[in-house]
Design a protein that fits this description.
With 452 residues, the chain is of the alpha+beta class. 51% of the residues lie in helices and 10% in strands. This is Cytochrome P450.
Amino acid sequence: MTRIALIPTSRAANFFKFQRDPLGFLMDAFPIGDIVSLRTSSFRPTFVVNSPAFIQEILVHQDSQFRKGRSSGVLSRTIGDGLLTSEQETHRHQKRYLTPVFYKERIQSYAGIVVEETLKLADKLEDGVPVAMHDAMMQLTLGIIARSMFKTEVDEDKAELAAAVDVTIKQSAKTIFSPIILPMAVPTPGNVAHKRAIRTLEAMVYDAIAAAKREPEHYADSLLGLLLDTKEESGEPIADVEIRDQMMTMLLAGHETTANALVWAWYLLERGPAVERRLHLELDHLGAAKEGQDGEYFDAYERFRELTYTKQVVQETLRLYPPAWAILRESERETQMLGDHFPANSSFIISPFAIHRNDEVFGDAAAFRPERFDAGLSEWPRFAYFPFGGGSRGCIGSQFAMLEAVLIIGTLAERFTFTSVPGQGDAVPEALVSLRVKNGRWMIPHRRMTRD
């Protein structure tokens, strides 16, 4: 018996609803069935995938049968052929040489940078003075990724670089879901702004590459140093353009997603006073991060390991507002999955945003309850909770992202609480390349009295 259900609405109605409200569309499709046909062309049928078992087939068991397709094509306009956009053997090759950057010992070494950069931000915040949280988190995570991955200081250029990332994200999102993709050469206002933003980011990237070639010993233990040391099968070093593509990938995928999740975390903490109190109890019990004589922060990684409830706050935030709100795949050929047949060139939309809101799995799924992670993830189906994707294309930097988010929240929440500037109403999710708070969020920092 087939597990494919037909959506009751027409193809045209589905298209316009998705364009207007993609998250609402995917939420409406969730109760219809495990696999929902959107009544699109028989030559390129489209399905919404709601079943963890089918998701595991697509992302893990049969991942070689699928490509990212259209989404990769659009994102490659900005980041080229990097890890996020490359396919098949190219992706496997890139993942092999990039994986050492995220080994445990490397992750541990990044912890001090995260705390140091966060304390710089904390020193700039003024009690009672509103701050644009999206901009603040974007600039913070940009500084962290530049130092930890590229050994590059971007303090003077943070605002300009973060604004450039913002332009590329908005233009890419607009293009991915547009029925017609205009070439970048067409001088529309959007394309002109997009190309200008790319040039801004490339200037930083190529300056860093040149500096690393001049002083390779200084960059030896960074992503940039690793890329410069990587050799092709021929024995030749990889080309500067490939280094550029990987650095652009890390810039966009490595900080914008975390920044968006952090804004949601501050908003949820404000709306969940009991959660915030428990978070503060944990932070006050552990005490403040202490700076040593050499400027390093004592046991920053050990502190991350001790922040148990803070980690659950991040996990719960990622459940409710996963940055990767939709995962797109296209079948290379005819495919059989769990007894159902899918033709070649079928498109599949997987929405962690909708699947994470399954009451049957989570119980009161709309509620912000970090303690639901007390028991770990073992009691849930494998792909009932998957904020970092899964399979061979799962996020390579997931451990770094968790460390970064946990230490940022722990460091700032120890010193401040944040409340929304009145008049903004409830935060509304905006489904761009990653999930952000629409129009950002202005919040007021309130300094806490903490013990040393």
